[in-house]
Each structure stands twice: as C-alpha cells, then as structure tokens.
Amino acid sequence: MAGLKNDRFLRALLKQPVDVTPVWMMRQAGRYLPEYRATRTKAGSFMDLCKNPELACEVTIQPLERFPLDAAILFSDILTVPDAMGLGLRFAEGEGPIFDRPVRTAADVDKLFVPDPEGELRYVMDAVRTIRRELDGRVPLIGFSGSPWTLATYMVEGGSSKEFAHVKGMLYDQPALMHKLLDVTAQAVTQYLNAQVDAGAQALMIFDTWGGALTPRDYQEFSLRYMAQIIAGLKREADGRKVPVVMFTKGGGLWLEAMADAGADALGLDWTVDIGAARRRVGSKVALQGNMDPCVLYASPERIRTEVKDILAAYGQGSGHVFNLGHGIHQHVNPEHAAAFVEAVHQLSATYHQ
Fold it and tell me: What domains lie within the chain, and their CATH numbers?
C-alpha cells in the first residue's frame, strides 16, 4: 500500500497540526453528480451499485476527480448490515428502503444473527479493498456503519418512518427485547467495522441518523450506550497509524458532553449547533466535524464563502476541525457550488493553522 500523500484529515481528527482545515462532504458520491447518475444507470439499481465493488469504487472516487477533497468515503449503505441479517432489503422507486421481513416480535429478534463480514458482506469488503488500491494513497478512506439504534428503526419499522411508532412502541413496552435487538446489532456493527479496517479503511464513522428522535434518557440508554460498546470493541490501529472514529448523531447537539465521553476521537455536528459553542463544551476531549447547513449550497458561491468564513471563525485557531456539511449534500445542488465550498475551506482556513 502506498503511503498517504494527504493525511490532513487523519491528523485533524487526532488534533495534530495541519496546514489547512480538511474538508469532505457526507454523500459526496451521490446524485448531485451527473457522472454518479450515469454509473448508477449502468449498475441497474442502487443495491446493484453497492454490490459491485468496481462500480462502488468508481463512484467513491468520482468526487475526488472533481474536487480537492481530503477524504474518500466508502460508497455503500447503512442498511447492508440488516440486509445481511436476512431481512430482505429492497429499494422501491420513490419510497426508499423497504424490508420484506421487519423485526416486530421476540421470535423475529431470536432469528437475528451476526453476519460474517467476509461472507454475507463480502461485497462491501471487496469494495473497500478495491477503493483503497485505486486511491493509491491520494487521501484516506473512511469506512462506516449505521448506529444500532438507527439500524433498529429501519429493521422494526420495515423502512423509513416519520413517527417511529413500531420501534418506539417496542422501546417503551418491551425494553428488554429492544436491548436484545440492539445488542446483536452492535455485535454485527463491531465486526463489520473491524473487517473494514482489515480491508483498508483508515478512519471510521458511525451514523446515528435517528438518535435525535429520542428523549435524553432514552438516547443514553438505547443509542449512545451501544455506540460506546462498539467503539470499545474497534481496532484502532492499522498500517502503523491510529484509525480515528467519528460519531455523528443528527439532532444530538443537546448531548455533546455525554457523546464526548463515549470514546470516539471526533463528533460530527449537524447545522443546529454553533461549532464554537460545541468546542467550548467538549474542550480538548474530541475533534469536531461539520457543520454547514447543506442548503447553503443552493446559494451563490459568494454566500457559500461567507458561511464557510463564519464557521471557521466560530471554531477558531488550531487543529481539531474537519469541515463538512451538517448532513448529506442534497441531490439538486449544482456541483460548481460544491467546488466553491471546498475551495473556500482550503483558502480561508490557512490563517487558523499558523
């Protein structure tokens, strides 16, 4: 494996000195890029694209060909794990993900098993190996998974949900069953992420998309607890370097102090938190990743630049900041605006690292 030509992303996550603030975008390989849409058409369907290591590699690298991003993220989906547990995932046009066999009863939970990352999930590991080889040290590769709570919401609901009626019904009525479901899911995620490190991932991210839907008490008990359990079981070194872990709870700004104690190297922030206030709250415990509102990318390049400037100023001097959006980039964003965003971060951040 080639040495890393650009390691500022890994350095910033560990709060080591960098020349400029590193930047990447959640969902940077996605529908806003015409070349992604062409590859997806070629693949046939979203899951066919995920399950083809060569095409997954192609779309992972596409944004790096356009923008001087400081990290690549594995192209995959958080629902690969529950799919590998036998729930029958499919994506319906206009409806999002659907599980043919949702988990609603004790018998359903008893059927769940920890999938073999090199068995049922081999296609993901093959994608990681392929991407790492093709990147050839250009930038680090981020591996990822959904959090147990977020995966459970899809597994119990059978797809996307606005009300979380089934999953919260289980949480409140049958907490022991919910814990059993979350525990087997946490074991699966731990093995899955460790296998990604073995295959070549150089940093890891846990996406807790639905943690913010919980009460503070339930967030600690049913979401944060299991992310901490996973982090405690992760391989944290590979190729003679530390493998940093980023934990991101959308809507989790109320609980930053508790999140900072969970063992991750960095916390992802959505756009509802002031990054300067977040830095003061977590102190030197963790780095921070974020957190521009993705909708700013619909505005003019000048306005994008102003927003970048404001967020950099709010974070202030020194390392420990990875610039990102507060959630994934939207599909109708003009790629030229994404380019203006990346350029602004690199240009305007140098003065904060002298």
Answer: 8-353 (3.20.20.210)
Q: What is the pTM of this model?
A: 0.97
Of 7, 8, 11, 27, which is the active-site residue?
27
Strands 237-238 and 241-242: antiparallel
Active site residue 77: yes
Catalytic-residue membership of 40: yes
Kindly provide the b/e burial profile for residues 214-238, where b requires at least 16 CB atoms within 10 angstroms of the residue's own CB: beeebbbbbbbbbbbbbbeebeeeb
Which residues make Cβ contacts (< 8 Å) with residue 144, sequence separation at least 6? 73, 74, 76, 78, 193, 196, 204, 205, 206, 207
154 catalytic? Reply is: yes
Per-residue pLDDT of the chain (354 residues; tens, 9 = 90+): 458 999 999 999 999 999 999 999 999 999 999 999 999 999 999 999 999 999 999 999 999 999 999 999 999 999 999 999 999 999 887 778 999 999 999 999 999 999 999 999 999 999 999 999 999 999 999 999 999 999 999 999 999 999 999 999 999 999 999 999 999 999 999 999 999 999 999 999 999 999 999 999 999 999 999 999 999 999 999 999 999 999 999 999 999 999 999 999 999 999 999 999 999 999 999 999 999 999 999 999 999 999 999 999 999 999 999 999 999 999 999 999 999 999 999 999 999 999
Active site residue 8: no
Round to the nearest angstrom and report the end-to-end CA distance of the chain.
32
Q: Which long-range contacts (CB under 8 A, 24 or more apart) does 41-45 make?
A: 45/91
Catalytic one among 32, 36, 154, 219?
154
31, 104, 241, 281: the catalytic one is 31
